[in-house]
Specification:
A seven-stranded mixed β-sheet has the order 5-4-3-6-7-9-8, with helices on both faces. It is α/β, with parallel strands linked by helices. Helix content is 42%, strand content 18%. Helix 1 crosses helix 5. The protein folds into two domains: 90 residues, Ubiquitin-associated (UBA) domain (Helicase, Ruva Protein, domain 3), CATH 1.10.8.10; 203 residues, 3-Layer(aba) Sandwich (Rossmann fold), CATH 3.40.50.150. The chain is built from 14 helices and nine strands. The protein is elongated, with a radius of gyration of 21 Å.
Length: 306
């Protein structure tokens, strides 16, 4: 997916408010962009300026530090200006560069999918631990709400005994996931399926991992503009309390899982108590029910065995 053309407002901003001078060097461009981003209250201004310029030049960010005096071509300066203008409007860097690192893997992302978060790597850890316990036995994993395919790709890259069904209701999201699966030649181990939760799963799963929409409706309007204005709302909104989609998934699990299956669910930062109670009510047969908190001490994962 190519970068969208800048909006008329972005063009006006670019032409009237800020333009790089002719013969601008790498160092000057970074400094000018950093200042503009700081004025727009971008907390990671210098890092963003560097990452975006490295993307424009097709180099690693480390390259920039040794080439501060190199002059940008007019085409490079124009491309950089356009992307910085879009970042000033809080468009996420990952959508500008179409790259996001997740679990040490370089993934393609665009506005059809959520940007993978570092916290979601905790789900990968849980799945890999269970896969290792069951090795060398083959383990069937259902990745529900697969999005970009981040979890599926990370698990497959780190566990040879897994076979994964990556499920998502969105055809757009599956197109992005397909690109990432093909990049890492994982087509034989990751099958992409359009599915409303587990309805299209063709066989029972030994592990179900799900990063489903969990933002409550009232909380949605308090999100940072980078998220609220750019990331797909259907992948974020989880109903009035944020748990509506998870509540639909839970009753599907017994009929779609093998005995003793591990279930790993990402949840909102304040949903732990609510979801523990929901699992106990809807799945009284569940065992080893646990709430896991992230590195900031916030509710992040519910896990249990069926």
């Amino acid at each position: 997916m190519q970068d969208a053309a800048p909006s008329e407002d972005a063009q006006v901003w670019q032409e009237v408010i800020w333009r790089l001078s002719d013969d601008v060097t790498v160092g000057q461009a970074i400094n000018a962009a950093t200042q503009r981003l700081e004025e727009a209250n971008i907390s990671t201004a210098r890092l963003d300026a560097q990452v975006i310029l490295a993307h424009v030049l097709g180099v690693d960010r480390s390259w920039l530090f040794a080439h501060h005096e190199q002059t940008l071509s007019p085409q490079q300066a124009e491309a950089y200006t356009e992307l910085i203008v879009r970042r000033v409007m809080h468009e996420p860097v990952a959508y500008l560069t179409h790259r996001k690192e997740f679990y040490g893997i370089d993934l393609y992302v665009d506005r059809r999918v959520l940007i993978p978060r570092p916290e979601t790597e905790m789900l990968v850890d849980q799945v890999l631990t269970e896969a290792a316990i069951r090795a060398p036995q083959e383990v069937i994993v259902a990745d529900v709400g697969a999005g970009s395919g981040a979890i599926s790709v990370a698990v497959a890259m780190n566990a040879e005994n897994v076979r994964i069904y990556a499920l998502d209701l969105s055809e757009d999201a599956l197109a992005v996931a397909r690109r990432n699966v093909e990049t890492y030649a994982l087509n034989e181990r990751i099958q992409l399926l359009q599915s409303d939760l587990l309805t299209a799963l063709p066989e029972r799963a030994d592990i179900v991992v799900a990063n489903l929409p969990y933002v409550a409706e009232d909380d949605y309007w308090t999100l940072e503009p980078d998220v609220r204005d750019y990331e797909p709302a259907q992948a974020l909104l989880g109903g009035p309390q944020g748990v509506a989609v998870i509540a639909r998934l839970l009753p599907q699990l017994p009929g779609r899982c093998t005995p003793g299956a591990l279930i790993v669910l990402e949840i909102g930062h304040n949903q732990g108590a609510l979801l523990l109670e929901m699992v106990e009510t809807l799945l009284p047969q569940a065992t080893q029910l646990e709430l896991h908190r992230d590195y900031q001490g916030r509710d992040r994962i519910i896990s249990f065995l069926l």
